[in-house]
Structures are given as C-alpha cells and as structure tokens.
Amino acid sequence: MLMPVRCFSCGKPVAEHSDEYAQKISKGEDPAKAMNELGVDRYCCRRMMLSHEELIDDIMPYKRF
To answer: Which of 18, 23, 27, 63 would you call most buried, defined as having the most Cβ atoms within 10 angstroms of its Cβ?
Structure first.
C-alpha cells in the first residue's frame, strides 16, 4: 500500500521523505544513515520508514468491478 502520510504514534509527517529514502536505499546506502540525513530522528517515525512494504503493484491486478 502507500506510505502513511503521518506517523501513527506521534503524528509527524513521514510520507514526504519516502521517495528520497527509497532512492538512497536503492543505491545501497545504510538505512540509518539515510534517515539521519532526511531528519527522521524519532524511533516511532523510523519504524514507519523501515517497516513499510510497497504492495500496490501486487494488489492492482485484483480490481473490484
């Protein structure tokens, strides 16, 4: 699914960093270093970034009519 807009625990916006985070991770950068550079410092927000799984491509073939 899509990245949640805000952290479930503290309410800080996290979706604004998701594209940059994905680019840095795909280049092989350390996830902790990438989050530090993006300013994601709270552990609850870091959890949101680390545990997100992009499932939209898996779900799209099952359209509801």
So the answer is: 18
